UniProtKB/TrEMBL annotation:
One of its GO terms (cellular component) is cytosol. This is 1,4-alpha-glucan branching enzyme. Residues 50-135 form the Glycoside hydrolase family 13 N-terminal domain. GO terms for molecular function: 1,4-alpha-glucan branching enzyme activity; hydrolase activity, hydrolyzing O-glycosyl compounds. The keyword Glycosyltransferase applies. It holds the Pfam family CBM_48. Keywords: Carbohydrate metabolism, Glycogen biosynthesis, Glycogen metabolism, Glycosyltransferase, Transferase. It comes from the Archaea. It comes from Caldiarchaeum subterraneum.
Length: 337
């Protein structure tokens, strides 16, 4: 469960009164100097292996490495169900290389743990609890906490993957069946849809399915086009491994998988990317460029290398971890004009 107002107020009161606990974060980094250079220059395409939450062991002790980009922050804490959402217990360490990354290792946090980042901006004028931009799983809406998760899965689509380049070749016949999973499955899980959809698509002679966005999104009425979790399939239909199983079954049925992907704009939910660290970090600072008027959403600031690294990493993440065959890029006009 996410923190109650009473829990938040109690922690805030303790902070004002100076009743602070000692942070129990251990120094740890998965980032090398080369990683940081790639990240800042817009050339890090596997950033999901470095930022976010990662289950690791340090000196034989299990736990989670947390890392988040928040250069305008004065203080960043990990809060979650493992510390009663106490912002003083696990304060992350700011890297000293000017990257704006805060990181650290928290012992004994397990897969399935709920968490957010408590971010206080420079000067203390802004404070918010934010979901992890690189979270592999989120709570099912209306919940909005991130979830520590491991993406291990035993794939059975080796034959498809070996032939993927020819199946998706410009010279290969392609007939695409577009699917809004929630409508087509009518409440079914990823696994249930995978089995039924594979049979139907193969019978109808389609070579590929294209799913309307299945990345986590808070507002169901957006059909997924207001993405909040760029590295997480929506939790509405099951766990990440259930999504993998759906892709696996489709591939084993000789059906390719495309995903709608939305790098053009994102919602302004207080727990998401908007005004992330008390500054317009992911979006344009200039309001004339920042607001997407059709959706009243924010447009990514493509001038920042870190934002480019975030988006390209998201695109490649779905091809890498979920064996997706291609992406349809939505609302390109918002990126150009």
């Amino acid at each position: 469960m996410a923190p109650s107002e009473a829990q938040r107020e109690d922690t805030a009161l303790q902070h004002r009164l100076g009743v602070l606990t000692v942070s129990r974060v251990r120094r740890l980094s998965l980032l090398t100097d080369f990683d940081v250079w790639l990240f800042r220059s817009g050339r890090h395409f596997r950033l999901y292996e470095k930022l976010g939450s990662h289950l690791v062991k340090v000196d034989g002790v299990p736990g989670v490495y947390f890392a988040v980009w928040a250069p305008n922050a004065e203080r960043v804490s990990v809060v979650g169900d493992f510390n009663n959402w106490n912002a003083d217990e696990h304060v992350l360490v700011r890297r000293e290389d000017g990257s704006g990354v805060w990181e650290g290792f928290v012992e004994h946090v397990e897969a399935g743990s709920l968490y957010k980042y408590r971010i206080v901006s420079h000067g203390g004028g802004y404070a918010a609890e934010k979901g992890d931009p690189f979270a592999f799983r989120w709570e099912e809406p209306p919940g909005n906490a991130s979830i520590v998760w491991d993406l291990s899965y035993k794939w059975g689509d080796e034959l498809w993957m070996k032939r993927r380049s020819e199946k998706n070749s410009l010279k290969a016949p392609i007939s695409v069946y577009e699917v809004h999973l929630g409508s087509w499955g009518r409440g079914s899980s990823y696994v249930e849809v995978g089995e039924e959809l594979a049979r139907y698509v193969a019978e109808m002679g389609f070579t590929h399915v294209e799913f309307l966005p299945l990345m986590e999104h808070a507002f169901y009425g957006s059909w997924g086009y207001l993405t909040t979790g760029y590295f997480a399939p929506t939790n509405r239909y099951g766990a990440p491994q259930d999504f993998m199983r759906m892709v696996d079954v489709l591939h084993q049925s000789n059906v390719g998988v495309f995903l709608d992907w939305v790098p053009s704009h994102f919602p302004t939910d207080s727990f998401g990317l908007a005004y992330f660290d008390g500054s317009h970090l992911y979006e344009y600072d200039d309001q004339r460029m920042r607001v997407q008027p059709d959706w009243n959403s924010y447009v990514f600031d493509y001038r920042k290398g870190e934002v480019v690294s975030f988006l390209v990493s998201s695109a490649l993440f779905w091809l890498d971890k979920y064996h997706v065959d291609g992406l349809r890029v939505d609302a390109v006009s918002s990126m150009l004009y």
